[in-house]
Each structure stands twice: as structure tokens, then as C-alpha cells.
Write a structure and sequence with these properties.
The protein is an alpha+beta fold. It has helices at 3-11, 16-22, 63-71, 75-86, 103-146, 158-177; strands at 32-33, 45-48, 51-54, 60-61.
Length: 178
């Protein structure tokens, strides 16, 4: 069964007004309700057959459209919800069954995965920086020892100067990474 056929069958298998009542819409004795999509002072929302219409804001749709707008889900997800909630009895379509994650859940899962990847990338960069700084500190420490003047009359090597200036900076950076 194609998704469009699935949705069509769901729409036509239930009493739309009864479904809306189950989803929290109260109708008066003339069959009108306050529209759930705008601030309605008087009842202007009406059901005729499978179609709902608001005479106030102009919204028109069916039970599937109603759930899409109210819950922010796709038509296929809304049809699956109606199938499940009212026991229509259609076999779930792969990816639309009631236990499949909704669009909102998929977005949350995707965001959590992106956050996980970002955290892993930050950790990789931090480890890379730590390893690089550790290597630099070892080289600076060796240069400081190797090129230190032996006496006061000896000339000062540029590598010694670089080591005594740079080594405290590298130590500070390493401490911030730990």
C-alpha cells in the first residue's frame, strides 16, 4: 500500500468529529467548536463529513491535517497516529508504525549525534594540541639544558634564549589543557 492510499484509508475510516473530540476539541449542540489554531471568542470551527473548517481563520483540513498542524508532524506520522489511536487495523507501513520516532524525536536524535561528534572532535583536537605542546616542551627543555652557557663569559645561544622565554608559555598552555 502506498503512503497516499494509507492516509486516504485512515481519513475515511473514522468519524472525524469523534476523533477531534478524543483529541480535546469540544463541540456545542450545533456542531461548532472554538478553533484550536487561533484565539476564538465564539465557536467558528465546524466538521462536515471528513472535512473541518474554521470560519474565523479560514483553516480547512481533515483529521490528518489537524494533527499535522497541532503536533507539527508529517501526514504519514499523523495517519499512523490515528491508525494506532482508533484501532483502524491497517498494517503499519515501514517507517510509519507507532513506535517509529517522530520528526521531533528524529531532530533530537540528530542533534544529540551532532553534539556527540562535536564533543569527539573537540576531544581529538585537545589531545592533538596536548601531544604537540608536550613535544615542544620536551624540545625546549632539552635546548635549555644543552645550550645553557657554561660560564659567564660564554656567548648566549639563540636556542637557549628561545627555550627560557617559550618554555613557561608552553607550560601554561599545557596546564590549561589538563
Amino acid at each position: 500500500m502506498r503512503i497516499s492510499e494509507y492516509i486516504y484509508t485512515i481519513k475515511n475510516s473514522i468519524d472525524t468529529q469523534a476523533a477531534l473530540e478524543r483529541y480535546g476539541i469540544s463541540f456545542n449542540n450545533r456542531g461548532f467548536s472554538k478553533c484550536p489554531f487561533h484565539a476564538d471568542k465564539t465557536a467558528s470551527f465546524k466538521v462536515k463529513g471528513t472535512t473541518c473548517h474554521c470560519f474565523g481563520c479560514g483553516w480547512t483540513g481533515d483529521i490528518v491535517d489537524f494533527l499535522c498542524k497541532r503536533d507539527g508532524i508529517t501526514a504519514a506520522e499523523a495517519a499512523s497516529k490515528v491508525n494506532y489511536d482508533f484501532g483502524v487495523g491497517l498494517e503499519p507501513i515501514y517507517g510509519l508504525d507507532s513506535y517509529a520516532p517522530s520528526t521531533a524525536q528524529n531532530k533530537a536524535i540528530s542533534q544529540a549525534y551532532r553534539d556527540h561528534l562535536a564533543a569527539a572532535e573537540r576531544e581529538r583536537i585537545k589531545t592533538e594540541a596536548y601531544n604537540s605542546l608536550t613535544g615542544e616542551w620536551i624540545q625546549l627543555d632539552m635546548d635549555e639544558r644543552k645550550y645553557a652557557p657554561k660560564s659567564i663569559e660564554d656567548p648566549i645561544d639563540d636556542r637557549f634564549c628561545k627555550a627560557i622565554v617559550r618554555k613557561p608559555i608552553v607550560e601554561y598552555l599545557l596546564m590549561t589543557l589538563v
